[in-house]
Specification:
The chain has 76 residues and is an alpha+beta fold. Helices cover 22% and strands 37% of the residues. A hairpin with a 2-residue loop joins strand 2 and strand 3.
């Protein structure tokens, strides 16, 4: 698995006051990084295929770090 399998997108969700950063794998949103509660949090969404998400730790960690950087940069 490599980092190019993840898409990191800044979004303005209608149910959020601040911008969020979404992490997608293919056509599925895996999680969202936001600051709605003051500090950055990760909201992980269910795998629509059922069962758990299964990602290489280092690759997914890098995707999370990139998402956090985009969020903190205010890239909206």
């Amino acid at each position: 698995m490599n980092l190019s399998e993840f898409q990191i997108q800044v979004a303005s969700a209608p149910d959020r006051e601040k911008c969020v950063v979404e992490i997608w794998h293919g056509d599925n949103m895996v999680c969202e990084v936001n600051e709605e509660y003051g500090a950055p949090v990760v909201e992980i969404y269910p795998n629509p295929a059922g069962g758990p998400w299964l990602f290489d730790y280092a690759t997914f960690n890098e995707a999370l770090n990139r998402a956090l950087r985009r969020l903190l940069e205010g890239a909206a």
